[in-house]
Design a protein that fits this description.
By secondary structure, the protein is of the alpha/beta class. The chain folds into three domains: about 35-335, ABC transporter type 1, transmembrane domain (ABC transporter transmembrane region fold); about 355-435 and about 515-605, Rossmann fold, CATH 3.40.50; about 445-515, P-loop containing nucleotide triphosphate hydrolases (Rossmann fold, 3-Layer(aba) Sandwich). The chain has 20 helices and ten strands. Strands 6-7-8-3-9-10 form a six-stranded mixed sheet, with helices on both faces. A four-stranded antiparallel sheet has the order 2-1-4-5, with helices on one face. The longest helix has about 55 residues, at about 235-290.
């Protein structure tokens, strides 16, 4: 029994701390409020003027009712009071426009600036972050969660200020008319305060589950559409649709549980407001009959109580908006607190890597979250203009080595040098500006072919783009397309074959004209003859550059200055092609198997 009690108590404390932590995330948007403080102050001033003018209308109505009761009203007097109300309504319309422009405009500005900041931060994060975070979750943060923050910062703040100011002002006018009747009218309000406090924490937890489920759905749709060819090839349309339907049902259930809280607040708020109205009719009507207050005062009092009904109902809505906003803000803040594993140097970097000399000294590397090292005691020396080939079984560590050289993961001080300079003393921009990288998994944008080739050099001329496309043996196929280089290739290059995507990536790397080029199995999707043709075409581009080429095919690396044979994260053999044929059984076996009937060798220089 004691254990159960302790467990329940700890859970309650944990939930309370979670809610408090979410509210502390407001510091993320506090600078934006300070920056636009003058705009907000003018907006709130216009909002309060609207409220004050709305509170004057019942006074005008009181004057008209009292005049009617006393028999003093005339047609022109009532017309005058009517014109007062119309004039006040027109002024209210003007000031309402002003506060909407200033306050709701601020919320949209906040949304834009926060989204830009979020996107810039995402671009600064390294590969390790995106390996543990789904794209769907990031998309949900940048859309659904940001919308919740915008709504809380706009209408949420407006409704809160409006409800508090209008409620207090209405109570002030009511106290002026009859203090005791005012106490009777507001007596049910503590019930609303207690209810709001109890439901707010539940609202926070349930909305968080809704957002998390939305992230899962977004990621599922993204993944299914990105793999649409595979889905169709395996006849998985119905299965995928069923999985999505199940996720949708969970999302609806979570929303219904959230709607139960949200739906409870409004009816009870309305019930409490109407309960106060009932008390006023009973007790206030009696006071009017006894002459303690005039008929005009009674009508005005009911008008003010009716005005107070909105603040009472708005409190539930405001609590919902704020809970949604702070929950989403906490999720965004968690992302903004993510730090890249690669730390950049402070201040400007005046170094330039021009020769492309690379030194790797006894490097051991373990992926974040893994226990077993992926690379073990790797040492490499590559002189300027030399070609290094890398072969090995799948999972040997070849791609990991390329990722480290391309500065996609951190390395220890004193282990990786470019032109004799420790990479940890160079900026990421300096290192990456010296490298043309063709990754194993080619990434293309849903844009034109020309855009994808010129990605790293947007100002490239048409002639330069065509020149590198010819070198990558893709020019003729591009010209055969309906719009040539302006043809759009679809999401991730879905309109192209695997070989075409790889050749576009090769062309993109050649266009950069950098001292170091890394090709990680960049021609695996083309046949040997096409590969040989591409090799001959790009040989002139590679001359004088430091080249690192990973390939599952041994023959194309025959003319490399040195070839590394990797296995289980280690370099198990190294040397020129002829020497490896003689003393490396693994290398010789693969070479003989792959070159039977083929004569194409990779010629450099």
């Amino acid at each position: 029994m004691r254990g159960s009690f302790s467990k329940i108590g700890f859970g309650t404390i944990s939930k309370k701390l979670e809610v408090e932590s979410s509210w502390r995330s407001i510091r993320l948007v506090a600078p934006y409020f300070r920056r636009h403080l003058s705009k907000l102050l003018w907006g709130f001033l216009a909002l309060m003027l609207v409220d004050v003018l709305q509170l004057i209308i019942p006074r005008v109505v009181k004057w008209a009712v009292d005049a009617l009761q006393q028999g003093q009203a005339t047609r022109w007097m009532l017309l005058e009071y009517g014109l007062y109300i119309i004039l006040i309504a027109l002024i209210i319309g003007v000031f309402r426009f002003v506060w909407r422009q200033l306050i709701l405009g601020f919320s949209r500005t906040l949304e834009i600036e926060l989204r830009n900041r979020l996107f810039s931060h995402l671009l600064s994060l390294d590969k390790a972050f995106f390996q543990r975070t789904t794209i769907g979750e990031v998309m949900a943060l940048a859309t659904n969660d940001l919308s919740s923050v915008q709504l809380a910062s706009g209408m949420g703040v407006v409704a809160f200020v409006d409800a508090v100011f209008m409620g207090l002002a209405a109570v002030g006018f009511m106290l002026y008319i009859h203090p005791v009747l005012t106490i009777v009218a507001v007596s049910p309000m503590p019930i609303l305060a207690i209810l709001t406090r109890v439901l707010s924490s539940r609202l926070h937890r349930r909305f968080k589950r809704v957002q998390e489920q939305f992230s899962l759905m977004t990621e599922f749709v993204r993944s299914a559409l990105a793999s649409i060819r595979l889905v169709k090839a395996y006849n998985q349309e119905a299965f995928q649709a069923e999985r999505f339907a199940q996720m949708g049902e969970t999302y609806v259930r979570n929303n219904l549980r959230l709607a139960f809280i949200y739906g409870t607040m409004f009816p009870i708020s309305g019930f409490i407001g109407n309960a106060g109205m009932l008390l006023v009719v009973v007790f206030g009507g009696r006071l009017a009959i006894l002459g303690s207050i005039t008929a005009g005062d009674f009508v005005a009092f009911i008008s003010y109580l009716f005005i107070m009904t909105w603040p009472m109902m708005a409190m539930g809505w405001v609590a919902d908006l704020f809970q949604r906003g702070v929950t989403s803000l906490a999720r965004i803040e968690a992302l903004m607190n993510e730090k890249p594993g690669l730390s950049d140097i402070a201040g400007p970097d005046l170094h330039v890597i021009s020769r492309g000399v690379i030194q790797f000294k006894t490097q051991t590397f373990t992926y974040p979250g893994s226990v077993e090292p992926c690379l073990k005691q790797i040492s490499i020396d590559i002189a300027q203009g030399k070609v290094l080939g890398i072969v090995g079984r799948t999972g040997a560590g070849k791609t990991t080595l390329c990722n480290l050289l391309a500065r996609l993961y951190p390395v220890e001080d004193g282990t990786l040098f470019f032109d004799g300079l420790d990479v940890n003393k160079l900026s990421l921009h300096t290192v990456r500006s010296a490298i043309s990288y063709v990754p194993q998994d080619v990434m293309l944008f849903s844009d034109t072919i020309a855009f994808n080739i010129a990605l790293g050099k947007p100002d490239a001329s048409v002639e330069d783009i065509e020149r590198v496309a010819k070198a990558a043996a893709i020019h003729d196929e591009i010209i055969a397309m309906p719009q040539g280089y302006l043809s759009r290739i679809g999401e991730r290059g879905i309109k192209l074959s695997g070989g075409q995507r790889q050749r576009l990536a090769i062309a993109r790397a050649l266009l950069l004209d950098r001292p170091i080029i890394i090709i990680d199995d960049g021609l695996s999707a083309v046949d040997m003859e096409t590969e040989h043709s591409i090799i001959q075409s790009i040989a002139s581009y590679l001359r004088g550059r430091t080249c690192i080429i990973v390939s599952h095919r041994v023959a194309p690396l025959a003319d490399a200055n040195e070839i590394l044979v990797m296995d289980n994260g280690r370099i198990v053999d190294r040397g020129p092609h002829d020497e490896l044929i003689k003393h490396s059984a693994f290398y010789a076996t693969i070479y003989k198997h792959q070159t039977s009937g083929h004569s194409g060798l990779w010629k450099f220089g």
